[in-house]
Every structure is written in structure tokens, then in C-alpha cells.
## 1
Amino acid sequence: MKFLVVLSFIVAAALAAPAGDVEILKSDFENLGLDSYNFAYEQSDGQKREESAVVNNFGSENESIAIRGSFSFVGDDGQTYTVTYVADENGFQPSAAHIPTA
């Protein structure tokens, strides 16, 4: 199931890529069973993504997933933007220099 989620993100990223010859420079996937996964990829257009997840309290009533990751892309202005994030029981928490804070 998690593999399908990860695969869907990669397919979406590939479809969102600009027209032209974009090559996959790095592609690592590791499904560690029911309780965790890791993946990373890097493309020749500067797009990168890394993510890892673990299930906390596996099999219990309080089971939850904790995801940590980052993604980078080159904006129309030629600058590389990087976002790091955590997604867990407290919601999605992105962090980046270009994201305004409250």
C-alpha cells in the first residue's frame, strides 16, 4: 500500500516535469515492510525529493505514521528552493526560507 503511495508521488512528479529531456540521476526505494519506508530521487532538471516514514505504536490503538522529508526544485527565476517537512500526528509542518512564518 505504501509502495503505491510512493509510486503515485513519483509518477506525479514525472508528469509535472517540464517538457524536454529530463533524466533520473538517482532513484532509491526501500520498503521496510509494514512499519517503514524510505525513498529518494534526483532529476537532471534540479528536482530532488527524499522521504522516510515510520509507524509509531504499530498495531496499537494509538498507531500513527511519522514522515520526514524534503524536496527541492528550480524556480522560474533560476533559484533552487528547498522545503523540509514533518507530517505526523501534529499535521503537516513545512519549513523553508521562502515560506512566510506567522
Note: The beta strands are 24-31, 36-43, 48-56, 64-74, 80-88, 91-95.
## 2
Amino acid sequence: MFPSDFAWGAGTAAYQIEGGWQADGKGPSIWDTFCHEKGRVFKEQNGDVACNSYELWEKDLECIQQLGLTHYRLSLSWARLLPDGTTRNVNQKGVQYYNKVIDDLLACNVSPMVTLYHFDLPQDLQDQGGWKSPAIATHFDSYAKFCFQTFGDRVKLWITINEPHVCAKLGHEDGIHAPGLKEPGIAAYLVGHNMLRAHAMAWHSYNSYYRPKQKGAVSLAINSDWFEPLRPDCNEDITATERDLAFTLGWFAWPVFVTGDYPEIMRSAINSQSMKLGYSGSSRLPRFSKDEPAILGTADFFALNYYTSRKVKPGGGCGQMCIKSDRDAEEILDPSWSVCGVSWLAVVPYGLRKLLKYIKDTFNNPAVYITENGFSQIGPLQIEDVQRCEFYKDTILEVAKAIEEDGVNVHGYFAWSLLDNFEWADGFSVRFGLFHVDFSDAKLTRTIYQSGREYAKMIMKYKRETDVQ
């Protein structure tokens, strides 16, 4: 059913779990700054301490072992390693911390998947223009090379950038993520462009200088919902669905896997909206330079973050220059789908199978890792989280069908998340963990949810089945 070397994992991110925001020479990140501004985060919460994984790593390791994971996805804090974002100033305490994490994982027979960037840009680089500045790509490449050099002898799976779509849109258009900018219709496309340039530079650096010896694999984690037409027989809904996929998945996957450029449907939609609104500047969606490292082919596997699905029809614009108007696709929740915790998270396991099949057919049948997928809980704590147990069973069954019936080359599945943690603008009000963290207790006690126990059983069961084969 699952390949014998299938990666069974769970994921976390540095800012969401580590805490130690000023400890041992770490520099400030944009999320430190954002959370310390009034009115940005639920109840003014922040990641100053979070799960305190900077001091309680051994507790996290116990959780990982209890689940029987074969892989663990973590992210490095750029500002913990390089406080001002550059290699001029290396924080050895940060290097020691991640060396210990990686070495401890390997000693327990757990393979690390390491993300270089999970939303937390060093504040010093933000002060120089952040992801809007073309120079950021070179800074990122230097950081990436530092990490490949320092940790790459032991890390064989790398993610350069997590969810560039979220960084671009939520951070620079909607302003609800750090750095909290609201520059609709322009900044997000520029940020996405520079993230792709940064990713490509880092991939080429790895390919030229590190791959021959280290023999690892590098990709970027692309988030997307599954979209289907509200009325399956309506041409307008079908076209709106294609546009929505292009503006979400295609924005970052198309340049890397298909043409080296953005989807034509995306570019033409943006240009026609610009004309309609009388925008006379150069195209809001930049073009890749022939003088820079090629974007096409800069992923050794497809890393997918999937959470939910939507029905689509034309509309949903704001009447002015913004991504929503460019996209011209209104997303609708099917009333038959149950919603878990946060309002946007409808539970649609079959959507993952459909999206995997779409990726196989559209992007030349790549190896796929599902790098995030999860189920949230809000309100009163339920350690016996029966719905989440069902969710994981149903979802993993859909992944099995994608492998067996659709022939999708799925190599791994990472649940989000190992721990309840700091969920960005939602603070600690939303819980995705396989382990509950008691944030009201100074010890930050970790307690396994029923879903954690069930996930561990599933891993054991599927491992046994592949051993028998």
C-alpha cells in the first residue's frame, strides 16, 4: 500500500515552537517585531516563549519517538543562526542548538527534513526592504549555502521556502502576517517573484557545490487548496476554477515545474485587470531575467501543503487593484463539508487525492511529499479528539488511493503539527498538535492527544504491511 521507504512525519516551525526569542545571541525576526506591535495577534499573544523548544528539545524528541515517526520536519531560525541575516555574524549557540537537534534525531533513527525559511525573516533584512528588495535573493542564497555547508552532511531533505503564497499575500497584501504590509495588487507579486529567485539561486548552489558530496534533495513547499467548479457543467465556473488554481498552486509550481514562467492564464488576468483599472506602469507580475539562474527544474520533489477545498465561481473581486480582483474567482464552502475549528478549514480528505492526481498529471509525475496537513481544534480542550482521529484515518486512506489507484508517486506524509503551538495571528487559540501543550503551566507539559496515539498506530500498521511485502 505504502512504499517501504515512505516518510511518516510531523512538522513544526521555529518561530511557532522555539521561544528563546532573545536567547544566546539570537537576532530579532519580523515575527518578533509584528507580535510586539499592538493589535496584530489574538489577545496580544506572541512567540517569545511558545513551546520553549529551545530549552525543551528533549521533550519534543520524546514526543517524536512516542509517535514512531521516521521523519521530522523542522525549520531553522535564520535570525538565530545569523542575527543580522548575513554570514558576517554567525551565532555559534544557534549552530550548536540545531546540530544537537539533527544529531539527536539521527541517533533515534529519525530523518530530518529541514526548512530554511518558515516566515521569520531577520528584522535587519526587512529594514533593507525585505522580500520586496531584489537583493534579498542573494542574502537568502548566502544563508542557504551556510546551512548546506553546516548541516548538509546529515540533512538529506531540504525545503528552501515554506508557502511563498502565504508570505506574499498575507504578509504584503492583506497585512495579517508579518511584516504586516498592505500594498494590494503590487507587493505580493514582487515578493513572490523574489522568493522564487531566492529559491532558484539556493537550488543551483546546492546542485553545483553540495549535491555531489551530500546527495540530498531540495524543493520549496507550495500550499494549495483543491478547487472544483461550483457548477460542474458551467464554463464560467470551470474557467474561474482554472484561474484560481493558477493563482494559488500555479503561481509557484508552474515556473519551477513547467515553463520557467508564470501561468499564462495568471499573467493575462493581471494584465487585463490593469488595463481595466487604468494602471499604466510596467506589468505588475514581473518577468524572470535570462541573466539569472533558471527557475525551471529547481525542485527535486514536489512539496505540498494541503488543508482544505473550495467550490469556485467567477467573482469575489474588490473593484480595485488587488489579487482578488485579478483572480476573479469566488471561493465557496460546500455546506455538506464539516468545518473543524477555524472557519476556513473545511474537512475534505478526498480533495487531497484529487490535488495529488492533478499534480501528477500537470507537473510530469514528480515525487511528492505532503509536507503539511492537519486538523484544528478551538474552544474547550478535547484530549479525546475523536473527529481528528477520523480525519487522519480518512486522509491517509485517500493518500493510499492516490498511490495505488491513481499512480501518484507519494513519498511521504507530514502531519501538522507535532505540538500545539503559536498559530501566527491566531496565537494559541488554535490547536493543531498531535500533542497538547499546556501554555498555562510554566513546565509547558506535553500530553498526547488520542489522535497522536491513533497516528502512531497507523504508522506501525502500515510499516508492518510494507515489511510483510
Note: The chain has one domain: 7-467.
## 3
Amino acid sequence: MGFVRHVVCAMSGGVDSSVAALLLKRRGFNVTGVFMKNWDSLDEKGICTTEKDCEDAYRVCQILDIPFHQVSYVKEYWHEVFSNLLKEYEKGRTPNPDILCNKHIKFNHFHKYAIHTLGADAMATGHYARTSQEDEDVFQQTHIAPPTTLFRDRFEIRNPVRMYKGADLFKDQTFFLSQISQDALRQTMFPLSGLTKEFVKKIAAEAGLHHVLKKKESMGICFIGERHFENFILEYLEPKPGNFVSIEDGTVMGTHKGWFTLTLGQRARIGGQKNAWYVVDKDIATGDVFVAPATDHPALFRDTLRTDRFHWLTVDPPPELARTQMMECHFRFIHQMPLTPCTVTLNMDGSVWISLSQAVRALTPGQFAVLYKGDECLGSGKMIQLGPSEYTLQKGRERLIAAAQHKEQPTPEPAS
């Protein structure tokens, strides 16, 4: 009897992670299912969905006849994801908790728990993503210490694991995995990498996993679920009322409960206004939220942005970028938005400027700029600075033209 590899599969109680565990078991691995509890409260209807999800995950493990564990990261989630989320909202930014949750919880604490506490040879998740290594390569990986300098020694010979889009391009989840560490990526298997969502559902039905098939797709904030966002955030942050101000003429249109309850591009609910107004900018010093009277208003469109230090999944920036400081690739900042061609410029501090081939609607500080080269997801960086909007540029051009015309006007002759 040969040596059987031990794989720990993260189980959420949903169809994807359930089928991931099933496929690993069918391939002869020794599989352990683990449910992570990361949030500790009832939803708005007073129902604790975590308990139901945990029960569903346990039932799947019983059907598959694999061991089941439950682990709590409530404290870690609070300190490393949720506190960060609140700080970002207070700064006027809109964070992405799902990307942060994968970075800090699933592919950090859970990864260490799987490998070091449960003694697994690898971990697995139900994400739709692919890597550059075969499963057998995963088991050969050893821990690599992160670099102590900004970039690694260029003479160090390495063979980093790369991440590629999953076969189901609609479900592809590389966007949400764009901040995970190379160390975790090297030791992770994605059993659904070559499958479509439809085929995954078919496998679940044939295996009798009907209780997870009936569940609807989770779409809310990672581990917080679907709830009314303004009510939820006001449980944690003091209301800071301010004005809705027209970007066009400075008219006060109405009031809001706090800039952190609003994000760029969303429709502003302004009492007494018949027409739709959209959030285009925020001033956290005054509490003013600037609004425009159309969903495609030029104040919502920009084509340049800067990130904080960019997280490259392979640790180092691509050789082309390191060599010339510039690179052509593709950009998105919302999962499933169409990819936009862009030019990336690398800064000395590891941050990047991204110049888009066309202006994009509602670029939002705090969200992650995720870069792709072909099918490869290169990594991501948090957007911290935006270039001027098309509206600002338009106004600037109008002022220049007006100034030039003013200069050209002949000065009247003084009366003799």
C-alpha cells in the first residue's frame, strides 16, 4: 500500500467546497473537512447562518465519510479584517473584505492550521482558479521565507507558482485571491480549476448532496452575509451627518448620515429629489458628499490611479516591468467587470501607477486594482489615489479656452 497524501479542504457548507472535497476523496486522497467560523452574530432576521452552514458542511463530511473539524477565527477576523474595514470607511475609502479575508484568514491562519496543526500535505478550497503546478508538485513544496528587502536578490533562482483564471470564466475567482501569499499558493489545490459551475452542480446532484444544492449563492460581505449595509455599518461607526452637494453648481441637495455609508457610483437616496443623483466624490474634512445628476456623468469617469505597494503573486514584479519600469497588461477592480487594457508604471517604493486605455466608471479608493496578463492573475494593489475625472479635465479645458479667447480680444483704444 503506497503513501496516501493528506489534504485538508476548507468547507463552507456550499456546493463548491462540498464538490471539491468529493473530488479529492475520489482521487484517493486522505481528506479532512474543516469549517471556519469567522463571524459571531445573528443576521438581520435574527438567524445565525453560520450554524446552518456549519451543519451543512458536517452533513457533507458524513456523506463522504471524511473527518470533520470546526475552527474559530472570530478574533482574528475582527482584528485583521473587520477593524481594517472600519478604518478604511472612516478614511472615506471603500474596502474589499472578501480579498482581505482570503489574504489574512483562509490563506494565512487556516493554511497554517491545515499544514502545521492537522499535519496536512496540502490544503484545498472550492475556488474557481488554476495554478501553474500539477497536484504532485504541491506535495513537494517547502516553506520559503518572505524577502526582507523590497524585491528579492535578482540572482536568486526561483520557480514561483503562478495563478491563472479558472476554466469557468464567468465564475473565475482569481480576483478574490489576488492578495494571497506565494507560500500558501504553493501548498493549495483547486479541485474545481477545470470545471464549470453547471458541471459542479451536476456532480453534487449525482452524489446526493441535495441539501447544499438548494442553497442560494452567497453574495454578501465575506462571512457577514447579505444585510442592509447602512444599518449594519452604523452599528459600528458613529453617524457623521453631512450634505449632498451638486458637483456642477455647489447647491446643497440634501443630507446623509455619514460619508462611510456611501460609495462612489451608487445612487444617492436624497429626500425630495424626483431625479436620480449619483455619488461622484467625498470630502471627509467637511463631510460633503458630491453628487451628479446622471449615472454616466463625466465626474464618474477617470483613467489613472495609483496603488499602495503592489502585491505580486510571484513575489517579484514581472521581469519586463522590473527592467523597463513599464508594462502593458489588463486591469479590473470589480469581480466580473470586463478587463481594460492598461499601462503600468513601477515606482521606487513598490507602488504602481496604472494608466487605462479608456476611462472607467467609479474607480474607488480602497478597492483593489487587480492586474492580468493573458490568463495569468499577476496580483493586486489597493487604490489610494485617483487621477482627475473627465469632468475636471473638461472644466479645465473650458477655462483654458475662455482665457485664450479673452487674451485674443482687442483692447479698446483709449479715448483721445
Note: DSSP finds eleven helices and 19 strands in the chain.
## 4
Amino acid sequence: MLRRLATSIIQTRGVKQLVNIKWVRPEYVPAYKQEKSGDLEGLPKIPTNSLPEEYALSEEIKDAPEPVKKIFSVEHLGKKEYNRLVKKELINRVRRHKYDENTAETRIARLTGHIRCLQDTMEQFPRNVKAKQTVQELIDKRKKLLKFLRQYDYKKFEWLLEKLNIEYKAHPETYHKLSRKESLRKLTEMHCDDIRRNKLADYRNLLESQQGPFLEQKLNALKFIRSEQIDLQLPITVSEQEIKKVEQQLEDWRKNDEIKQQAKKKKRNILLD
């Protein structure tokens, strides 16, 4: 009843101020962002003086002076060589042997390296439409490979996620468009639930505060009934166990009430400070 009333109040013109509900549209997050793609880390740290693979195997470069090595390093050769080293570093984390190039793990690692390089490019040039389309296609392709690996080898799937520091985010089964009307309806339901919860909590506190005096009256009444039955030599209907049980309940209530009062004092002192 309360939920229907609050919903009708929101939908009525001129009475929206009675319920303090404000709807804010969620911030748009592009699909290439790490929050959406599931990449929990950025590009691996590769030293700028690292040599590309084709130059690192050369015998002449080993004996060359430092200025020559610096010219052939990644710092001077450009972004393309740096991206190759990024992919190689990620593939080396998961490859089974040095000739492993086409297993599901190495393909996912290669895609991950490409995705993270393009994510770094998009951070620098957010209007690069071609890079945006490419990274979204690669993310979808990696999701399909991860889904395949998850279905056929779940232990390796978890190991791969840990090695590459990825969070698996599957494709949604159904597409649901966010609307203001539906969001307001959900916010209204949450608001009504909070009102109901607060009223129940207040009513519970009221009943607990009245429990002590009620137990005292009950205890006195039971003692009076028992003493009168003994004096008048009537059949005793109130046993000692019932009286002890009420005494125990009253003692427990007093302890709990003392703890609550101390908590209220601490809270009041914190607010005053």
C-alpha cells in the first residue's frame, strides 16, 4: 500500500517534492575501458633500453658500444616494437614451451597484449575511431576464447585469468535498456522499503523498552498468586520454575538495556566531539 502511494505521489504533477528521490543518469563507460573489458592491469613494465627480438639475437649488437645499442633499443625504434615486446612478455607467462604459438592460452595472451596496447592508444587519442572499433572486436574475440576454455578446462581457465590478471565478463544474455521511469520506480520501492524498515525498527525498540516493566508486573503477579494460593490452601498453579524463568528474563533484559544505554552515550559523546 505504501509503495503504491509513493509511486502515485511521484507520478502526480506538483507533488514530487513530497518524496526526496533524485535520479542521476549513470556515467557512460566506453567498452574499451578496463572496467568493461576486464583487464585489471595496464601495460607491463618493459625497460626502454630493451632490444627487439631480431636484434637481441645478433652477435654484433652484443659487442656494440652503448650509443649503438641505444639507437636499436625500443626507445628509438617506436611504438610498434614496444607493442611486440608487450605481447611477447604476456605470451611467455602462459606458453607451455618455446614453440607454443597456437594454443588457446597463447592466443588469449596475444589478444590481451594487443588489447592493452590499443587501450593505451585510446587513452592518448580518445577520438581514434579505427582503434576503438579494433579494440572492441578484439575484446569480443577474447571473450569467445575464454568462454571456450572455461567450458572445456575450468582449472586452466582460472590459472590463465590469474596469470594475465583478467576478470572474465561474459556477454549478457539479454539486453536491457536503462530508462528514467524504471529507475524511478526502483528508487521508489527502495525508499518505501527504507520507510517500512525504519518504522519496524522504531516499533521494535518501543516494545523492547516496555518489556522490562511488563516483566516486573508479571513477576509480582505470579508471586502474589502463589502466596495467596498457599495461604488459602488452594491447588498451586504457579510453580517456582515459572517464577525463576521470569526472573531470568528480567535480568537479561536489564543487562541488554544497560548495554544499549552505554552505546547511546558513546554515540552522543562522539557526535558532541
Note: The CA atoms of residues 130 and 271 lie 56 Å apart.
